[in-house]
Amino acid sequence: MERALEKYTGKLFIFEIISIILGLMFLAPFYFVLVNSVKTLGEILTDAASLPAIFHWGNYSKVWDIINFPKILFNSFQITVISVIGIVLISSMTAYRLVRRPTIYNKILFNVFIASMIIPFQSVMLQLVRVTSILELRGNLFGIVSCYLGFGLALSVFLFHGFIKTVPMEIEEAAVVDGCTPFGVFFRIVFPLLRPIMVTVTMLNCLWIWNDYLLPVLVIGSNKELLTIPLAITKFFGQYTKQWDMALAGLAIGVTPIIVFFLFLQKYIVEGITAGSIKG
């Protein structure tokens, strides 16, 4: 018994060491961003890993003014919030219908959602640019939000679909007996029960949309009124010069809101994914 316990303790110690090493590897990019955001460009090019001799906090104020940070922060915020709210509402209602009405057509539709998840975004980039141009969706808020809804629904429907299967039908039947309408059953009974997976879907889509660069650069283009944080930071990368000190300071400011949001909701993410995987 003691030998088995010692063997288990040894394995546990090894796993802890591996976990610490992996954790440090994942934290390394944050270290480089934060440390180099308060250096001069010369210090960054000379030694990017060392601590700065003098902390140049003025990099942050310069970036704030150069890219008009309050404006681009508002742009990123409104695009993210509107897109995520739309994804949560549409995907939850879609998944509820697919689960509660398992017809052959709904099963085919669900499989289409799943199949679309394996299509690389790069393979539809040219078609996306052409379609958005024809429909006059480029360079406006409605266009970028519509694209995020289209590309974000598949995974969200999949997550909601697995979770809704765990919601007992008896609760909905009791609500119907009490005279609740189909919309009332969903929004008054089912929707509040989806909170764990709703937080997961919200967090995953917020991380994606807030940090996304490729889709905004294709749809928003050169519209300066709708520039998001990733697009604005590219201002510091020219053909002949790269202002790493300004870019890293802007990146540090830009990721702060979403990191705080993630840390606040991280415990609900695992809870939602685990609950949604109980039934398949």
From TrEMBL:
Residues 73-265 form the ABC transmembrane type-1 domain. It is found in: Cell membrane. The chain crosses the membrane at residues 12-34, 72-96, 108-129, 141-164, 185-210, 246-265. Pfam families: BPD_transp_1 (PF00528). Its main location: membrane. Keywords: Cell membrane, Membrane, Transmembrane, Transmembrane helix, Transport. InterPro entries: MetI-like, MetI-like_sf. CDD domains: TM_PBP2. It is a multi-pass membrane protein. Belongs to the binding-protein-dependent transport system permease family. This is Carbohydrate ABC transporter permease. The lineage of its organism: Bacteria, Bacillati, Bacillota, Bacilli, Bacillales.
